[in-house]
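Predict structure. Chain length: 881.
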Amino acid sequence: MFNRARYLLHRWLHRQRTEQDLDDEVRAYFDMLVDRCMARGLSREEAQRAVRIQFEGLEQVKERVREGRMGAAFETTLQDIRYACRALAKSPGFTFFAVLTIALALGANAAIFSLVDGVLLKSAGYPHPERIVQIWEKPPRGERNAVSGANYLDWAKQAESFEAMAAISGGTTLSYTGGGDPQSLRAGVASPPYFDVLGIKPALGRTFATDEDQPGREQVTVLTHRLWRSTFGGDPAIIGRSIVLGGVSYTVIGVMPGSSELDRQVPDLWIPLTFATPPTRNYHYLRALARLKSGVSLEQAQAEMSSIAGAIANLYPDIKKDWSATVERHIDRIVTPQMRTSLTVLMWAVAAVLMIGCANLANLLMARATLRSREIALRLAIGASRGRMIRLLLTESLVLSVCGAVAGLGLGYGLLKWIQSLLPPFYLPAEANVAMDERVLLYLIAVTLVTSIAFGLVPAIQAARRDSAEALAEGGRGSSAGQRKVYLRHAFVALQVAAAFILLVGAGLLIRSFERVAALDLGFETEGLIAARLPLELGDDPDGIRLSQNVARILEEVRAVPGVREAAVASALPLRGWGNGMPTRMADKPNEAATGSGFKIVTPGYFHALRLRLVAGRYLNEQDTSGSLPVIVVNESFVRQYSPNESAIGKRALINKLVPSRLGRGPVTTWEIVGVVADEKGSGLESPSDVGAYASFAQNPTVGLGLVVKGAGENPALIKSVQRAVWNVNKHLVLDNPQTAEQLKADSMASRKLTSSLLGGFAFLAMLLACAGIYGVLSFVTARRTQEMGIRAAMGASRADLIRLVIRGGSLPVMIGIVAGLGGSLGLTRFMEAMLFATNPIDAPTLVGVSGLFLAVALAACYVPAWRAARVDPMIALRQD
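Prediction complete.
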């Protein structure tokens, strides 16, 4: 191998002398053969002619010698690349357009493949991720439900299918006081086995010990690598140091590794999960993760958990009757079906853009090969094989693809960064490792090779199959006149139009869905409204007296801020759910099974801050206190579900109270309905219905609150003023992620907006490429028909007649493509149905609008070549060779 490489290098460095030696040797051999023929009585001219006929000429013999050498393929490939570069440099306009087309298509493919690969294809970075499972409680009329604390503890003690089982709560927000203004940190709350379940070891220190979930030992914390670097400067001496979180001193015991799934999760740090004594069994607020033992199947684990859950249901039939448990692989649950569908649609979209680009370039290369027909015919006439010509032309395609891929890599990187900047925080699952890595590079190399063959092979074969004598005689004029090639070009155009049309229909449907979501009535006024989480600490406050006092002081301080018109607290922020779901039934129908409804705890100012419309009765007010009759205000959806066709005012609903100052469900309470308000979009903009009730904070104080403020003036300045007012009450209390209502709405629509924008952009690019293809093909074909146009004009055809003639020929493949696209779009939209909101997959206005738009743009692309052809002077056209 070494000797071969040394030989090839020596020949490459001395290639001029090698070629000279070959020329001298072949000429000497020819001269020897000529002398032999002359010895047989032939004249020199006859002898030279006979030798040339026998061996096809000097150059052919040298070519065969070159092909027989070691490394000949390498040499000829380099020759082809050098020639391709020179040929492309002579046509800068064509080269620029071709490289730009490939760069746009491959850049879009690289960016979207990075997303698809990071979210759908790469395995999670945990050790043996297939053994990590999620365990849910299974209600009688549902598939999965969050887990209660008591049930988790029973599972962890009794289950033998798992190496470890951990519980994770919804987390909390803690303020970090380390000098300057307090900083809001998101804390993950997990039981000690959490890190063992994931199989991730700390980079520094340790994780939670088994007894650090007990009261009095839980003031320890594990930091993420990003927090350790950003807030603590990457100080390795952080282990063992005490930091103040939410006014409580915690000891840092560990730092997790960087660039892992944990650094992409929401929490900045973790604290141990502790359970109330006794733990609750009817309040579901936990997620359970577990790691299967080696050799234990998912089915075995499911059977064991079903048995344990059945035993619990038998022991507590009043609250757990017919409840069971569900075990699912974690990797199967980390990507939502909607996200999977969105990424799949985007991947197909960029593949369609690439296909359109390939068809476009194939047409251009066929036209370019036509113009080079004399050159190709001459090469074939002097001895080049058809295979050699195909390889030469394919090399040009490969050079174009490589240049486009290099440019596309940069465009793809920029597009990916732009997409990531538009995604809501933590929108992608933590397990998604999205990056332009070696996997994307390998994908791009593979697509580049396929692309070069896709748009270069057919033109190369067409050019190589051309009869050389015919091409030399015609001078390159006739190759475009064959109907077969015209039909092939039109087929490419129709293919581009059909693919672009399908993309435009899909984008149009998503845009209509987005517009309908954006136009939804939120049920409340957004002007001047700001909202933030208010992370009040859990504590030993069984009656919620201290909690109520703190909330009253905070609201008093906030209402005193200039520009604030109203302030309130609620157990859930607008568009962020209801805070709690409660089994609900009406007191006058005690035998009916309870069904779930939202249960939001609010202070009376909540209705005025949001300007919720009163439909009947009254709002909650300051007279609804702990000593008065428990009352609720319900929304219209609640009335439709529990009291249809009759007034709900005065009726009573049976709903559990929440336990003050800790996460838990209290006794069933009879609540009188005193008011009905219009629905607010509590569970998100696209929620079909929001059945819910509002209870007074004074009658049921609870933790997990948010602050809602209605104000005037500039929102950023108002947010700062509200934060200072909160600090007047508690210097450790930091508003978590304060936002305007418009920002809340924008966040809830961000993923739909991004998908619609990307698909719309790709569809628009596809349409431009398709129309560029129409324009290019029609311009070439029209230019080849110049004499025909001159004859028609000389015989009396008007310019309008000539324009109609050209447009009629160009619009035929466009109409075929649109018809094919209509059929293809029906299949695509059925697939996209889950992504649409209040939009029929066969939306007539969208189909008509897209058809009209495409036809208008396509006709414009046809008109320019037609207009040029109609303006040609007939005398000049008739004299054209």
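Summary: The first strand starts at residue 132 and ends at 138.
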